[in-house]
Amino acid sequence: MIDRRLKRRARERRKQNVKGIILVVLIVAVLVALVVDAFIMARIIRERKENQQTEAPAETTVPEGSSDEEDTTAEPVTGEETNAPETLPPETTALPTRPTTTPNPTSPTSPTNPTTTPDPTVPTTAPRPVITGEGVRVWVGDSRTVAVQTYADYDRDKDYFIAATGEGRRWFASEGLSALEEALATGKVSKVYFNLGVNDCVLSYRWPEEYPAVEYYSALNRLIASYPRVAFYYLSVGYLDEEKYRGSSFSIPEVNEQVSKLNSDMNLYCAAEYVPLAEYLLSDGYTSWDGVHYDVATCRKIYQYVLSVTH
To answer: What predicted TM-score, i.e. pTM, was given to this entire model?
Structure first.
């Protein structure tokens, strides 16, 4: 009887010992699992930080004394007229890229300038001397107007140019208009010839918000009301020559549609007298060496024609 009791107690003790061992094993297993999970999480966090540091863009260091913008200010033209060739060498001055704005996801790629060799004899900005004479004629325009100043035999005492290559309504709003107002404030200006718009038309057939007519005729109408003794003229913007244009940046027919629209709107809504310069060139003939800009003979023809119809 006693032996049976002892054997039963021994079996119970063995069972308790086994249960204790199993419990200890389970606790150790749980602790090991927690340690492994913690190690894995730490490794994942470290790898993410390393990836973020690798993907971070490096800062671009601009060398001291350098500039991101090109200095396009030309030296003033002085002395006698430079003997220029009758046909200008290829350049691209009036084919602008669209100014930086918030991108339109539905808009196509912005037109860019075809690669050509610039003509060093044509300045990018018309030099503006101090107005000293009376009855001054102010010419406002883009590269076509700069070319007229460069190659036409203009009167240095009477003609004053406010023009910049590749520019349009944005330049006029930020710089050209204030320069024109300063000239008018001298009281020595008798005529204003306005011939901006071709660069805007290159852009506006793709981006309608670049269409310049409202801004141009609003500014001119305000000036006309402020200076009633000054004669203002809008010189209609000349068309692009599809046969001469060899680039692929834009569609000549679509740009010319915008040119027609601009000339029509300026004729209707601008108080300046409309001078049919574009129509005259089409009927009398002209030469464009790149489809956009005129040769020396045409620049001189434009100057003489404008004076003859506005005397």
So the answer is: 0.62
